[in-house]
Amino acid sequence: MVVLDHVTKVFRTGKTPVRAVDDVSLRIGRGQIYAIIGYSGAGKSTLVRLINGLESTTSGTLTVEDTTISGAKEPELRKARTNIGMIFQQFNLMNSKTVAGNVDFPLKVAGWPAARRRKRVQELLEFVGLGSRAKSYPEQLSGGQKQRVGIARSLANEPSLLLADESTSALDPETTEEVLGLLKKVNEELGITVVVITHEMDVVASIADRVAVMENGKVVEEGNVYDVFSNPQTAPARRFVSTTVKPTPSGDRASELIERHKGYLVSVEVTDHTDLGDVLSKLGDRKVRFNIVEGGLETLQGRTYGKLTLELLGEISAVDAAVEQLKLVTNVQEVRA
């Protein structure tokens, strides 16, 4: 659906050029929910503006469903954008128009006849759960309802690609869950490819199939969401994962645990491939006892990942042997102050 081949975007508004997107290559498959995650300034919002042609690439090639966006003239871009829906963080609704009027607007611009527009608007409002609010105005709606109107509007022209730029960051957790559920419904029932731009790891975990991690304009890690979450390879990815799973204790926290526990403390990685239970169940045979000190496990796409900090108690030689057995099935780190 979307192919980026060595795409770069440089802004030259001041004395020092800013490389907002730096040599990014990505392939976003048709029918996927694809997340692009990064902290503020990572380049993710610029990247989405390149995909919908609101910014032009400095170099590289960007293609959306066989249409080359990079280097395209405005008439070609306008045609391409009819196939791309956009959802915004701040909703971007027209306060002077009703809910139905907001959804109708892109259809009117596209030249749809009135009867067909009315039918399409009602279909979309029913789809997003706002069939009874057609005559309401944005100021009468909650944040979640406003975003539902935004989603309905983005679907008006029957796009095959939907771009959601921080579409839940202005919402409370419960409303966020509802909106993410609606985006998943859009993907599954309408077959629309969804690209989610976010700085929230929970959003990625909730709905995405694949994820790209951005920092300083570059994609530093990319892959299946479970693989990136359970075994992050880069520092930025590990920082994001640490917001959902407790990392190996360090610093003051490690000192506190070492002071409180007499045994040998290790942090072990848990994934659905880890045969950790078998090793732990046999520690008694080695005259080693263990306690789970802290940690946490998460379930993602029906698979488990996380970390546990264990206290191992017994003779030094037996504990050392137990650690070597653990290393055969998982990553093991000593807890140090």
Overview of this protein structure:
Belongs to the ABC transporter superfamily. One of its GO terms (molecular function) is ATP hydrolysis activity. This protein is an alpha/beta fold. The chain has twelve helices and 14 strands. It has helices spanning 44-51, 74-81, 99-109, 114-127, 143-154, 173-190, 201-207, 225-230, 235-241, 251-260, 276-281, 316-329, and strands spanning 2-11, 18-28, 33-37, 59-64, 67-68, 84-87, 161-165, 193-198, 210-215, 218-224, 264-271, 289-300, 303-313, 332-334.
Measured as a percent range, the helix fraction is 25-40%
Uncertain segments of ≥5 residues (pLDDT<50)? Answer: none
Biggest sheet record? 6 strands, mixed
- Placed side by side, the strands forming the largest sheet appear as 6-7-8-3-9-10
> Would you state the CATH class of the largest domain?
Alpha Beta
> SSE order in H/E notation?
EEEHEEHEHHHEHEHEEHHHEHEEHE
Overall pLDDT score: 90
**Fourth CATH level, the homologous superfamily of the largest domain:** P-loop containing nucleotide triphosphate hydrolases
Structural class of the secondary elements? alpha/beta
Number of helices: 12
Mind telling me the C-alpha Rg?
25 Å
Number of beta strands? 14
Organism: Rothia koreensis
GO molecular function: ATP binding; ATP hydrolysis activity
Family: Belongs to the ABC transporter superfamily.
GO biological process, one term: amino acid transport
